[in-house]
Amino acid sequence: xxxxxxxxxxxxxxxxxxxxxxxxxxxxxxxxxxxxxxxxxxxxxxxxxxxxxxxxxxxxxxxxxxxxxxxxxxxxxxxxxxxxxxxxxxxxxxxxxxxxxxxxxxxxxxxxxxxxxxxxxxxxxxxxxxx
Length: 131
Hints:
Strand order of the largest sheet: 1-4-5-3-2
Number of strands: 5
Structural class: alpha/beta
Oligomer: single chain
Radius of gyration: 17 Å
Strand content: 15-25%
Number of helices: 3
Mean pLDDT: 83
Order of helices and strands: EHEEEHEH
Distance between the termini: 54 Å
């Protein structure tokens, strides 16, 4: 997954044990994806990425389309924000299929950079406060 503009290469996670190892790391939730991140402790190696789309999200054609959209978003923008020595697993949600591609790229980039998504405003004081 390289871009002609940059010399950054993102490796791929291919085997089940690699995916399962990443599940032990940090989870960063977003509206279109769940990003799982694991620091391998090897800063001299490049980042690796894997993609997961479960069967509950549609038939094979729809799942492959979601996977292709996520791969392209990583290739075009998000791959350059990935930290060397880390593994990333992008778990798709159903909305990836119908979301505008620019939104997918933006959300994926934010999750990789670990920016906090818009949080809810603080709750109004209630009767349970102070107990």
